[in-house]
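Homework help board

Subject: predicted structure for assignment chain

Our instructor gave us this sequence and asked us to write out the predicted structure in token form, then describe one feature. I got the tokens but I'm not sure how to describe them. Can anyone check?
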Amino acid sequence: NRLLEKAELLATLSERLQPEPGDVSPAAPPSPWEEESGRGSEQAPRPAALREKWQQEEEELRLVCGEMAYQVVEKSAALGTLEAELEERQSRLAALEARVAQLQEARAQKEAQVEDQRARNAAQRAAYEELRAHAGLQEVALRRLQEEARDLLERLVQRKARAAAERNLRNERRERANQARVSQELKKAAKRAVSISESPPPRDVIREGTETVALASGPESLESEACEKWKRPFRSASATSLTLSRCVDVVKGLLDFKKRRGHSVGGAPEQRYHSIPVCVAARVPTWAQDALDAHLSEVNAVCFGPNSSLLATGGADHLIHLWNVVGGRLEANQTLEGAGSITSVDFDPSGSQVLAATYNQAAQLWKVGEAQSKETLSGHKDKVTAAKFKLTRHQAVTGSRDRTVKEWDLGRAYCARTINVLSYCNDVVCGDHIIISGHNDQKIRFWDSRGPRCTQIIPVQDRVTSLSLSHDQLHLLSCSRDDTLKVIDLRASNVRQVFRAEGFKCGSDWTKAVFSPDRSYALAGSWDGALYIWDVDTGRLESRLRGPHGAAVNAVAWCYSGSHVVSVDQGRKVVLWH
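My token output:
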């Protein structure tokens, strides 16, 4: 606009300066400035040239004005777009401000809820502290009551022990008095002379001078039997032999009573069975006598009864089969159904009960001849891998993968003691006063049955799969996943022998190895179905048996008489070797 104004002003000035035609103005005299400038230049520019120049500038200014007008139009359009965008953003800003107001209101509500929740938490914390203080008082009271109960129990046990000791003392005194009386009667009877007539008086009354002795009547009486046999009169005879034999029977009865007396504290606490047949020399098996597909799936455990004629096998099909060994053959006797996969079987010392460990976190007890389980020993929190009787039929020990070993009172079916063994337990064996456990952490641990602590730890090179204790309880056989068997001398607590063989490998974490009954040989099954027998004294491989097994051998058993061996495998097969 300014340029246009200047152009118009220039045009006006040019029009004024342009002379009209025919108008001749007198030439003014040249001024001194013009004279001076005329001397230096030719002549001043004419108005026509100036007009042309101003016209060119005007055109240029118009072009510039047009371009600027075009730019003004473009800027106006851009301004309109920006104004529309501004209006849109203002609307969005209003919506966001409304949303912010809503969120602030919600925040205020949440803050109120948080304050309420904090108040409730504070109240609950105070109640919790009060309950904890009350629980502490209750625990103190409980401990006090437990101590009182323990003291009462100890005093009761002491009183019972004193009463039992007094009862035993009275019984012993009574027995000694009876023995003294019987000995006096024996002496008197030995000095007496009796005359026997042909027809004895009724009720077997025999007169001895001025005394009358009434003997026991009845068909079983020695005197009546003697009277029946005496058919001819005797001039005189002595009744010393009759009376003496009877008195000897009485004395024997008293002595037998004294031996049988075991119900008191002074007597033996439990009966132990030592009637297991003694094996003088075990026979190394050479060939398979019988082979059966005994189970529906793999067989994990096998055990002979004390009389060597009864056999038990347990498998993953939840079944326990009892077999009679008759004439070199296995004859089915009974089938017991367990609550889970069977991992271990054992007979009690009398052979009348069967104990089995199962994957159902429990052990089960059966009486031979009965189909229903007698007891279920539950309390473990994982698979039970081993269950063994102690030296009596009323006590047992179980080991589990829950890192515990439990002692059981079978008479009352309750856990008498729980031992934390720090690792998975794969097998246990029991001695007189010791429990030995083999573990996944490559250690064999010894536990005293009368104390709570571990008495000894023997490390091995790999996971322990089985343990076998010799009958004299002096040697322990262990099998581990490093494919070795070790004989441990329990007197010196060191490894006496290590057995290896080319081709021998443990087929599983529960592969069982056993001693022969006379502890002369060690027996184990391999992953390829072969049986390996080592001589314990020399350490050399005595025999390698191959037979019907087509899968890894899980367990073996050697009968107490030493004449038969049984092996079971992962292919459902049970093989009797002779």
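Reply (TA_rk): Your tokens look well-formed. For the description, you could write something like this. The longest strand covers residues 329-337. That's the kind of observation they're looking for.
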